[in-house]
Automatic annotation (TrEMBL):
Annotated organism of origin: Chlorella vulgaris (Green alga)
Keyword terms, alphabetized: FAD, Flavoprotein, Mitochondrion, NAD, Oxidoreductase
Predominant location category: mitochondrion
Positions bound to FAD: 113-115, 132, 138-140, 182
Protein name: cytochrome-b5 reductase
Gene3D superfamilies: Nucleotide-binding domain of ferredoxin-NADP reductase (FNR) module (3.40.50.80), Translation factors (2.40.30.10)
GO molecular function: cytochrome-b5 reductase activity, acting on NADH
Family of this protein: Belongs to the flavoprotein pyridine nucleotide cytochrome reductase family.
Classification via Pfam families: FAD_binding_6 (PF00970), NAD_binding_1 (PF00175)
Location in or out of the cell: Mitochondrion
Length: 309
């Protein structure tokens, strides 16, 4: 979920029209252009959909404190500082670790979990995961115990919904809870990175204000882009200064914040099982979309107008 803001010998290299041109400077004479016929190739990416690749942890930071299940930022270094992860929007990666049951040969079975990086596809040299660490979460507990310098296996990306499909819509409604923010922040940042003129409204729900992550990042996006609106919701709040809704997401809040049912609108939903059941119905065990139910169906949305992460 965090995007980071991170000629020698008289020869200057320039790229023009998809062809590499080398300008040679010779004794004060006018530069002569010499085309290179070799086709340009895309820069290498770190991830592979066909094999597991190991990346080292280089930084970890608690994003929330004083909550039962804190969210922690884990930064993994890519093989080269100029390399990108290779994460089209919106996609996730698989993570594996030998922390499963014991096998006859004495080794442990691999446990595999999907996570959505928050560093975006344009971050170079690293990939960030924001993981909610649950007391009984086998993988989240394992990752949280990693020390700087330890490695973790990755595979992917796994495409969820393409930016091309999202760009065909005039209005997007994003409903997310907790770490369900991760694919949503991918979507919002890439849309505005590519200057897409799409109206985007987000409801970001959490148990408490302490559970909210990336607030400064989201508020900055809303300030910089007049077509992006963010609304915060918490189950409970002891603060009189909280700017948002208190209580579970209900029909009135959805009607106020989300675009109405229409062929040029799409609602994206991502959150914990209870929230998914209430708002849209969860995905099926095989990870297909499954039937639409919950508040969105009651409000007249169709299955073609809702996408579940």
């Amino acid at each position: 979920m965090f995007r980071s803001v991170f000629s020698k010998g008289g020869v200057i290299a320039a790229l023009a029209g998809g062809t590499a041109i080398y300008w040679g400077v010779n004794r004060g004479e006018a530069p002569a252009a010499k085309p290179v016929t070799a086709a340009l190739t895309p820069p290498p990416v770190a991830l592979s959909a066909d094999e597991w690749r190991s990346f080292k942890l280089v930084h970890k930071e608690a994003l929330t404190k004083g909550v039962p299940s804190p969210t922690v930022l884990f930064r993994f270094a890519l093989p080269d500082k100029t390399m990108e992860a290779g994460l089209p929007v919106a996609s996730c990666v698989l993570v594996r670790a030998p922390i499963g049951s014991s096998k006859p040969d004495g080794s442990n079975a691999f446990v595999i979990r999907p996570y959505t990086p928050i560093s975006g596809n344009h971050a170079k040299g690293h990939m960030d995961l924001a993981i909610k660490v649950y007391p009984d979460g086998k993988m989240s507990q394992h990752v949280d115990k990693l020390k700087v310098g330890d490695s973790l296996d990755f595979k992917g990306p796994i495409m969820k919904i393409s930016l091309d499909d999202l760009s065909k819509k005039a209005r997007l409604g994003l409903i997310c809870g907790g770490s369900g923010l991760t694919p949503m922040i991918q979507v919002v940042e890439e849309l505005y990175h590519q200057n897409k003129s799409i109206e985007v409204s987000m409801i970001y729900a959490n148990v408490s204000e302490k559970d909210i992550i990336a607030k400064e990042r989201l508020d900055a996006l809303a300030k910089q882009n007049v077509t992006f609106d963010i609304h915060y919701a918490v189950d409970k709040s002891d603060s009189k200064d909280f700017e948002g809704s208190v209580g579970y997401i209900n029909r009135d809040l959805l009607a106020k914040q989300m675009p109405p049912p229409a062929s040029d609108s799409l609602i994206l939903v991502c959150g914990p099982p209870g929230m998914m059941k209430s708002i849209s119905g969860d995905k099926l065990p095989d990870k297909s979309q499954g039937p639409l139910s919950g508040l969105l169906k009651d409000m007249g949305y169709t299955e073609q107008q809702v996408f579940k992460f």
